[in-house]
Specification:
Length: 145
């Protein structure tokens, strides 16, 4: 009973919180290609970072048959490389490990401030579905636990 309640609560929370966008395995849907980040005040000309290449996340073996979510807040360097995981919210750490393993291989077109590439933070949401499908969604640069 408790396990079912926890799974249902996590699933309901994930549906309300993350609202996954359906995507092809290795690309973001057009509407989600811009990583939304907070524009620095000093930037009069701003361009948010864009995902350039992505590798597919693999479903965690220890979570097969379960739905799960992981929202990662990550740092993108001025060169477009993944610089590290800053924070996360997830229904299980197995999903964080799987999502971060994929994101470590991604590259980005870096954020631009007044024509210069700058480091920035971005959020990427992963939804792992029981059927084995994994979807990605980008969003705001910060979130609450």
């Amino acid at each position: 009973m408790n396990t079912t309640m926890i799974r249902w609560s996590a699933g309901a929370m994930a549906a309300l919180t993350f609202g996954a966008a359906i995507a092809a395995e290795n690309i973001f849907p057009k509407r989600s290609r811009t990583l939304l980040v907070k524009q620095p005040v000093e930037c009069t000309q701003w361009a948010a970072p864009l995902p350039a290449t992505q590798s597919r996340a693999e479903y965690p073996d220890d979570a097969r048959g379960l739905h799960g979510d992981a929202a990662l807040l990550l740092r993108i360097g001025a060169d477009g490389s993944y610089q590290g995981l800053l924070d996360f919210v997830a229904s299980d750490e197995a999903y964080v490990r799987a999502a971060e393993k994929a994101v470590k291989q991604w590259t980005f077109v870096p954020a631009q401030c007044n024509g210069a590439a700058i480091a920035s933070d971005a959020r990427v949401d992963f939804t792992f579905r029981r059927e084995g499908a994994i979807t990605y969604k980008t969003g705001a640069s910060s979130f609450s636990r």
